[in-house]
Amino acid sequence: MMAYGNDVKGAQETKKIAQEKGVNSSHLSMHSVDIRKSNEVQSLFELTKTTFPSNGVDILVNSAGVPLYKELIHVTDEEYDRLFGKILFNIDYLMNEKSYWWAS
């Protein structure tokens, strides 16, 4: 199961590479998820638990990031908030959500 933000092309390329490496196609359903929205993360975990009820999640890879092409000295407070909110806080949320779903 693959979740991606807004990079559809990148997700499709990743899926193709995984299939070429022998990953079972039934495990490669793609889902667009905004990890800043807790309801979307919860829906993804509900779908995952329904799809794989006995197996759960073995690996959770989060490569979320926000590109910012400027010198550090020119980054605004709002940009810092956006960057760290998405990268740090949402990774923690994903891990907590995973723990909640598979602990029950």
Strand content: 5-15%
Cα radius of gyration in angstroms: 16 Å
Q: Report, as a whole number of angstroms, the end-to-end distance.
A: 21 Å
Assigned CATH superfamily: NAD(P)-binding Rossmann-like Domain
Strand order, sheet with most strands: 1-2
What is the averaged pLDDT score? 76
Roughly how much helix do the residues carry, as a percent range? Answer: 40-55%
Number of helices: 3
Overall 3D geometry?
globular
> Which CATH architecture?
3-Layer(aba) Sandwich
In CATH's first tier, which class applies? Answer: Alpha Beta
Uncertain spans: none
Note the run of SSEs as H and E: EHEHH
Largest sheet: 2 strands, parallel
Helix and strand content put the structural class at mainly alpha
User: How many separate domains?
Assistant: 1
Examine the coordinates and then state which fold CATH places here, giving the name of the CATH topology. Rossmann fold
